[in-house]
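[Solved] Which block belongs to which protein?

Original post:
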Amino acid sequence: MTSIPTLDTERLVLRAFVRADAPIVQRLVSERVIADTTLNIPHPYPEGGAETWIDAHERQWQTREGVHFAVVRRGDHALLGAMGLRPAMHHAHAEIGYWIGSPYWGQGYATEAARAVVGFGFAGMGLRRIFAHYLARNPASGRVLAKLGFRHEGLLRRHYLKWSQPEDVIVCGLLADELEGL
């Protein structure tokens, strides 16, 4: 299988993470607000956690367990966050997940990157469905997905524990034949 592809958008390059990205990843995800708005990022973020996470990416891609993209701003090459798919190829579907560093919130980067990754999932990986779970108290994540045409599919009440508190999670999905202009 080939290496993780590079995806280009108007303002962004989505590429494989490299070990040199680890200090920036560590800094961005160490903010409590990032852990607070995501399902799987711990706080405090463990020292060396970014290296361990990055080191797993190529194997995950080769075994079709996942693909992770560094979201990089085209002009200055700033690493803004991460976007990825966790597929179940035998079902031809994948879960999309992402985080953007808080200094870059509200500028449309998550939507632009997600549009590219969703397009890659359908056209490049042959997926028929992409879905997402997000915390009900994080409506910004829901807006990113809604802009791409994801449909609300349900509410999982008290589904996850975050900071030892039960959290409601919203599920939404997009089918390949629902794509419009991605």
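(Second protein starts here: sequence line, then its structure tokens.)
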Amino acid sequence: MIDHFGILCADYGKSKEFYDTVLAVLGYSRQMDVGSALGYGSAGKPDFWIEDGGDREVGAAIHFAFQASGVDEVRRFHEAATALGAESLHAPRPWPEYHPGYFGAFVRDPDGNNVEAVFHGATTREG
């Protein structure tokens, strides 16, 4: 349904460092740089954009999740984010109330957004 989406960043430099680091853990990288905005994704397709907010007011915090390829990737995402000083909202764990196999971790990005890494195929043993 969604082709791509983007967010405004109050501190563009800090946001670039944050997303360069945490998205690399999930296998995503910079796909396009147009100066005031960066597109992250894979295989030449930018799916997620960050934009320099400049003098514009950055909006209310939102929640979004990036797909991980396994529970170890979710854990590494959380470790990378917290190593940068991100607030941990929820450490990596199973979330059976969402559905069996849901394994996620949640952190705050530099603008206060709730950023999640999720894997949908976790086994009971992995959680």
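Accepted answer:
You had them paired correctly. Confirming on the second one: The chain is about 20% helix and 40% strand.
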